[in-house]
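## retry 2 of 3
previous attempt timed out at serialization; input unchanged, resubmitting
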Amino acid sequence: MQFLAMLQEAATGGSPLMTIIMFGLIFVIFYFFIIRPQNKKQKETEKMIAALKKGDKVITIGGIHGVVVTTKEATVVVKVDDGTKIEFSRSAIASVIVDKKEEEKAAKKNAKEKKQVEDKTEKVEAPAAEAPAAEENNTEKTSSEESK
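## retry succeeded, writing output
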C-alpha cells in the first residue's frame, strides 16, 4: 500500500529520486522480459546454424522444407526434391527438424557413453581407495617387527 502511495507521489512530480527509481525499475523490467530472452534466442539460433551438417532436415525462413546436401562457409545447399537443389544463405535457415526416433537414439547413446565413463572412473578410483588400506597394513607390520 505504501508503495502505491510512493508511485502516486512520483507521478505528481514529487521527489526526483522517486522518478529515477521508477525509470530504473522500468529498465530492469525491460531487461528481464525483453532484452535477455531475445539474446538467449539469438545465441541458440547461432549455435544451430553453426552446427548444420550434411543430412540435416531444415526449414527455411520462407517455409521451404529440405535436406542439407552440402555446407559452405556462408551458404547451405538444400535438396528440396529429386534433382532440385537450392542454395541458401546460412541465416535463411529457420530451424532444424529432429526426428523423434533419431533424438531417442542420440539420448540412449549419450546415456550409454555417460555410463561407460562413470564405470571407468569407478574402476580407477577403486584401486586408489584400496591403496591407503594396504599402506596402513604395511605400517602396522613394520612397527610390530620393530618392537620384536
